[in-house]
């Protein structure tokens, strides 16, 4: 009889404990942050999730953190930089939040910025940054802060601002007897149509592939912003409430892409595998940081994005560092962020991450990070690419929009697709999500 | 004398009762790790998921609000969920029919005393021990428009489709890739069952004039019916839980044609941060698996010849 009573009791105890533990991870997290931060006694350990696993990047972070720990032994004992793989970064981060394992600080990608900013997950760091001694807050480009600001507050520091550029394989272009993109830039003839003609010609003569929007792969359609920007198109209105896939500019841009892919063969179609850095692709639109993948096996050049009918639109990929409101030590974490991104440390970080500080956007500062590029290239392509740039599409409901739009756009990537009809379907599916 | 006998009987009863208690305590001690493990890692999460399914859980805003049956009502109106249920149905149907029939056919073929059968048994079983992700990545390359499959088809004059970009061909592709991954396991189970069919019954039937097909239908199938039940339960449950293959090969596309229920659940939870709604879908998935398993278990009385 003893056992008969004990087993159900144990079961109930386990169920209760499990359920309570599970509930607490979701519900109690909400109010735990601020109080514990102010009540924190003694030096604290901070944790920051990052997507980079580069030893050089992490060594620099550790160096900056060690300085601060040394200067503030009463406030900090350590800062841990937790590297999470790029592919699963946001998923892992939100899973940590769901599990009550909230980091103090985190890198956040631009596409998720509105969702994080508007949810209230991030603390307002503006007062801390503005109040930090010698921080020179006004040096930060206002356009770089747009995505991370709301209601006069700032919810993340735009840590990395990497422009999209065009890498070209000049060996392939010379072999096919085509015009040099660098010369076309000089003469004002560097347009998307010129890039398409060169790509078609090199593919016909040499095989391989012509133009690739890297990482698009008929899935990450948001990377096409580097193309449709030339037509002045965008996926939704500035306030994010109206779908603009059916606007004439977008229809023209998508028609251009469709024809370049299926009529000319300038862009490799879906289901093919081609990599610019392997040497059999004529040109690729990608971020400047990818220059490190070049191994000298072919001659190359880097030029700005081509011009479209609406001129040239510079596009950057941005990442911000935010402080979680529900972390254990939000005030201390904001203080550390002010140190981490101070003018002196921003200059050190500029070795790897183009900064948002105007005073650091010089070829002399950036040349250390990009030894493969000349100062002239950096001036024209990187600094010019960051100035007046837009970021890739972002929305408070981005994850669902990304998946939904991708699903509808799949119909476009067929030879006989009706571009206008497909884009109409995209808007029909996206509208409810934009108005959520 | 009678008093003595009564006393002895009482004493024996007491000793027997003490043994029973000791046996029960020992038994409980042995099963307690499994029971505690099940409670902690099966029952408690199950209860927690049901509890979450009654809430709206915004991970970023850290809010956890009781919503009652709202997530279940949302399921009724969610067309994407209905589409993913249909995709799951097609995927499971294709997988179960193809996997079981192919596994049984291979097992019958490789049960013959012919040269080379050992090689083919190893060849068909080897994908089972290969990493699923590695297997799927290789198939991803083979199924590209200019990949190995279309090159092979081209060699015999057939212009192959862009397998992973067509709604129907993508579903066919994921089913075939999954079948080839796991058919070896079912084949081994069938092979083992076939080898337990008594030879003398087959010989007796042959003497009575039964041909190969008659012997297969009337003797082999009933004799291996418990294994068919086991394989069908495992394959149906496995088909409803297929996730990694879809994630690596098609990401649920093109469109949503290969977005099976478990992939839709993953998206809601980990891409859209809709943990409450995803929990409701998890409950639905659990109910479907449970219902199908119970259905198979109940109908076994009609077609399973004996139980082992």
Explain how this protein is built.
The complex is a heterodimer of chains A (436) and B (308). With 436 residues, chain A is an alpha/beta fold. Chain A has two domains: 216 residues, D-Maltodextrin-Binding Protein, domain 2 (3-Layer(aba) Sandwich), CATH 3.40.190.10; 195 residues, D-Maltodextrin-Binding Protein, domain 2. Helices cover 43% and strands 15% of the residues of chain A. Chain A has 18 helices and eleven strands. In chain A, the strands form two sheets. In chain A, strands 1, 2, 3, 6, 7, 8, 9, 10 and 11 form a nine-stranded mixed β-sheet that branches. In chain A, strands 4-5 form a two-stranded antiparallel ribbon. In chain A, helix 17 runs antiparallel to helix 18. The N terminus of chain A is likely disordered. Chain B has a two-stranded antiparallel sheet. Chain B has two domains: 52 residues; 234 residues, MetI-like (MetI-like fold, Orthogonal Bundle). Chain B starts with a helix and ends in a 5-residue tail after the last helix. Chain B has 308 residues and is mostly helical. The chains are: A alpha/beta (436), B mainly alpha (308). Chains A and B meet through helix 1, helix 4, helix 5 and helix 17 of A and helix 1, strand 1 and helix 11 of B.
């Amino acid at each position: 009889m003893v056992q008969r009573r004990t087993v159900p009791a144990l079961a109930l105890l386990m169920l209760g404990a499990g359920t309570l533990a599970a509930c607490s991870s979701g519900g109690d997290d909400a109010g735990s942050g601020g109080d514990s931060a102010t009540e924190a006694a003694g030096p604290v350990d901070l944790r920051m999730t990052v997507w980079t696993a580069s030893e050089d990047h992490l060594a620099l972070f550790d160096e900056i953190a060690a300085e601060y720990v040394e200067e503030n032994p009463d406030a900090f004992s350590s800062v841990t930089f937790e590297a999470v793989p790029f592919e699963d970064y946001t998923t892992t981060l939100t899973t940590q939040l769901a599990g009550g394992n909230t980091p103090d600080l985190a890198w956040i990608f631009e596409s998720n910025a509105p969702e994080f900013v508007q949810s209230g997950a991030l603390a307002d760091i503006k007062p801390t940054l503005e109040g930090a001694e010698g921080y020179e807050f006004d040096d930060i480009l206002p356009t770089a802060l747009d995505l991370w600001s709301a209601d006069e507050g700032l919810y993340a520091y735009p840590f990395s601002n990497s422009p999209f550029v065009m890498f070209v394989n000049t060996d392939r272009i010379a072999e096919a007897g085509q015009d040099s993109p660098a010369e076309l830039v000089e003469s004002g003839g560097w347009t998307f149509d010129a890039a398409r003609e060169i790509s078609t010609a090199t593919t016909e003569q040499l095989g391989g592939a012509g133009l690739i929007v890297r990482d698009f792969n008929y899935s990450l359609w948001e990377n096409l912003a580097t193309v449709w920007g030339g037509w002045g198109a965008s996926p939704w209105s500035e306030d994010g409430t109206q779908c603009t896939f059916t606007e004439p500019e977008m229809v023209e841009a998508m028609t251009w892409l469709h024809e370049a892919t299926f009529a000319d063969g300038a862009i490799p179609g879906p289901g093919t595998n081609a990599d610019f850095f392997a040497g059999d692709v004529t040109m690729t639109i990608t971020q400047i940081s990818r220059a490190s993948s070049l191994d000298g096996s072919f001659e190359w050049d880097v030029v700005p994005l081509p011009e479209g009918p609406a001129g040239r639109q510079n596009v950057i990929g941005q990442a911000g560092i935010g402080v979680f409101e529900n972390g254990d030590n939000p005030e201390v974490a904001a203080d550390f962020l002010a140190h981490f991104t101070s003018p002196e440390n921003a200059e050190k970080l500029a070795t790897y991450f183009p900064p948002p500080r105007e005073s650091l956007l010089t070829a002399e500062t950036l040349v250390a990070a990009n030894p493969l590029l000349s100062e002239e290239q950096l001036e024209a392509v990187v600094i010019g690419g960051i100035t007046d740039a837009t970021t890739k599409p972002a929305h408070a409901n981005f994850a669902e929009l990304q998946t939904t739009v991708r699903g509808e756009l799949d119909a476009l990537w067929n030879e006989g697709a009706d571009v206008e009809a497909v884009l109409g379907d995209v808007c029909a599916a996206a509208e409810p999500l934009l108005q959520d | 004398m009678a008093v003595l006998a009564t006393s002895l009987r009482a004493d024996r009863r007491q000793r027997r009762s003490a043994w029973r208690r000791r046996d029960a305590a020992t038994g409980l001690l042995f099963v307690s790790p499994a029971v505690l493990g099940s409670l902690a890692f099966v029952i408690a999460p199950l209860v927690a998921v049901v509890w979450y399914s009654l809430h709206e859980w915004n991970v970023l805003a850290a809010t956890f609000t009781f919503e009652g049956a709202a997530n279940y009502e949302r399921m009724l109106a969610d067309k994407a969920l209905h589409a993913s249920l249909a995709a799951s149905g097609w995927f499971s149907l294709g997988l179960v029919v193809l996997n079981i029939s192919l596994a049984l056919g291979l097992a019958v073929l490789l049960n013959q005393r012919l040269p080379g059968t050992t090689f083919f048994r190893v060849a068909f079983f080897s994908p089972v021990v290969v990493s699923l992700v590695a297997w799927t990545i290789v198939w991803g390359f083979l199924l590209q428009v200019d990949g190995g499959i279309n090159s092979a088809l081209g060699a015999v004059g057939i212009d192959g489709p862009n397998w992973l970009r067509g709604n129907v061909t993508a579903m066919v592709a994921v089913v075939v890739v999954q079948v080839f991954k796991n058919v070896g396991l079912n084949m081994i189970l069938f092979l083992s069952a076939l080898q337990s069919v008594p030879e003398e019954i087959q010989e007796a039937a042959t003497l009575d004039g039964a041909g190969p097909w008659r012997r297969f239908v009337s003797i082999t199938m009933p004799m291996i019916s418990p294994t068919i039940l086991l394989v069908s339960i495992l394959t149906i449950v496995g088909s409803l839980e297929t996730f990694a293959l879809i994630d690596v090969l098609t990401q649920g596309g093109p469109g949503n044609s290969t977005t099976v229920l478990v992939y839709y659940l993953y998206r809601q939870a980990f891409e859209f941060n809709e943990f409450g709604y995803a929990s409701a879908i998890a409950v639905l998935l659990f109910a479907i698996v449970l219902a199908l398993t119970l259905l198979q278990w109940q109908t076994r009385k009609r077609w399973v010849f004996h139980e082992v």
